[in-house]
């Protein structure tokens, strides 16, 4: 039986723009062009784009945040915080980005789709319950997790479904961490460069209350490359996923840990990224009936992003090939072993 892999992409995600800003429409244009060039688009089932409802936004954000964003956006360009811009199209793009992620997660949870990919902007993983941050307006992957849980309970599921979110963007997914910090039903795992903006994501941030142990940070030193990525996945991410036993796997996909990305200093290659994407799809097959939905976060070199997302698309579509026209950077692969040793000894993250 062939896989049903959902895709949401739409021109309205290109309208959110600020000249000269790194989080720019050309990112998504490059991705779509590469998916077309590689003849991958036809393998997907396209879903219509839909705005998230107010209740869906409020499943991850405080009322004041939603009202503040709605009130701040007007027909003139504004800054919502020091890094996050908005123009007259931003509200529609932001609510549709959250709606797209929610629809894919819901459809996969209900068994209407096997897997999903949300190619959306603005990104979401820095948006906290109460504020915009780091180019992010609403936390798309968090809204998706809540929508999937709601869909399962509406479908008569007795227990609240367990959602695992793996975030491989180079920046710590601080917003997602904040939203689920005390929630034992959502496991959040972030691999990121440390130190780096936003400054959070140390390995001792492990959740609180009932959520203690359901938040795993893997802070990788600058210079970490594919070797560190593979070790972190094998030693920390996969064991944590197996212990948690999710019903659905969500992926916050950011390609700014590539060696050529202008915003950070990790040294992954496109081959390393393709490897981790395939691992995550295999983990979903092993642990949760193949249910996996990926949501686009960062990645600011458009060629890296385009080829990287195409390799993720191949993994989701069950195709074995991958492409890496850029190879490895000149820097070596910093040893992340000391951090992984410490993580393995922590309760929750380790054994
Ligand atoms: Zn990032």
Give the count of helical stretches: 10
Number of strands: 10
Sequence of secondary-structure elements: EHEHHEEHEHEHEEHEHEHH
Point out poorly predicted stretches.
Answer: none
Rg from C-alpha positions?
Answer: 18 Å
Strand content is 5-15%
Question: Spatial order of the strands in the main sheet?
Answer: 2-1-5-10-9-6-7-8
Averaging pLDDT over every residue, what do you get? Answer: 96
Q: Largest sheet, if any? A: 8 strands, parallel
| Gross morphology | globular
Q: Which structural class is indicated by helix and strand composition?
A: alpha/beta
- Which ligands appear in the coordinates? zinc ion
What is the percent of helical residues?
A: 25-40%
* First-residue to last-residue Cα separation: 37 Å
Commentary on this structure:
This protein has ten helices and ten strands. It has 351 residues and is α/β, with parallel strands linked by helices. The strands form two sheets. An eight-stranded parallel sheet has the order 2-1-5-10-9-6-7-8, sandwiched between helices. The radius of gyration is 18 Å and the shape is globular. The mean pLDDT is 96. The structure holds zinc ion. The site of zinc ion (ZN) has 7 residues, from loops.
Short structural description:
This protein has 351 residues and is an alpha/beta fold. It has helices spanning 25-37, 54-58, 63-72, 90-109, 140-154, 174-180, 226-244, 270-287, 302-316, 337-344, and strands at 5-8, 45-46, 78-79, 85-86, 115-118, 163-167, 186-193, 215-220, 248-253, 292-296.
């Amino acid at each position: 039986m062939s896989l049903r892999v959902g895709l949401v992409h739409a021109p309205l995600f290109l309208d959110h723009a600020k000249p000269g800003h790194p989080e720019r429409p050309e990112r998504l244009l490059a991705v779509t062009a590469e998916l077309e060039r590689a003849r991958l688009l036809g393998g997907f089932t396209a879903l219509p784009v839909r705005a998230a409802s107010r209740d869906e936004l409020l499943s991850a954000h405080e009322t004041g945040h939603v009202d503040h964003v709605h009130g701040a956006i007007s027909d003139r360009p504004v800054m919502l915080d020091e890094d996050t811009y908005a123009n007259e199209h931003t509200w529609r793009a932001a609510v549709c980005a959250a709606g797209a992620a929610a629809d894919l997660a819901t459809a996969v949870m209900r068994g209407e789709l096997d897997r999903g990919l949300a190619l959306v902007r603005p990104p979401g993983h820095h948006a906290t319950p109460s504020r915009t941050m780091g180019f992010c307006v609403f936390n798309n992957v968090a809204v998706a997790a809540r929508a999937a849980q709601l869909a399962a309970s509406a479908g008569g599921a007795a227990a609240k479904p367990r959602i695992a979110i793996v975030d491989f963007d180079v920046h710590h997914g601080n917003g997602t961490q904040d939203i689920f910090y005390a929630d034992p039903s959502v496991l959040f795992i972030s691999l990121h460069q440390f130190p780096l903006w936003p400054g959070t994501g140390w390995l001792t941030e492990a959740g609180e209350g009932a959520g203690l142990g359901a938040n795993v940070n893997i802070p990788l030193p600058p210079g970490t490359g594919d070797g560190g990525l593979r070790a972190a996945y094998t030693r920390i991410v996969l064991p944590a996923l197996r212990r948690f036993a999710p019903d659905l796997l969500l992926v916050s996909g950011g390609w700014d840990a590539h060696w050529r990305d202008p915003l950070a200093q990790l040294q992954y290659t496109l081959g390393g990224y393709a490897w981790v994407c395939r691992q995550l799809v295999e983990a979903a097959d092993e642990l949760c009936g193949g249910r996996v939905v990926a949501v686009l976060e960062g990645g600011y070199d458009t060629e890296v992003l385009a080829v990287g997302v195409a390799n993720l698309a191949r993994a989701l579509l069950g195709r074995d090939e991958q492409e890496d026209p850029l190879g490895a950077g000149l820097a070596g692969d910093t040893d992340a072993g000391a951090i992984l040793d410490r993580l393995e000894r922590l309760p929750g993250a380790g054994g």
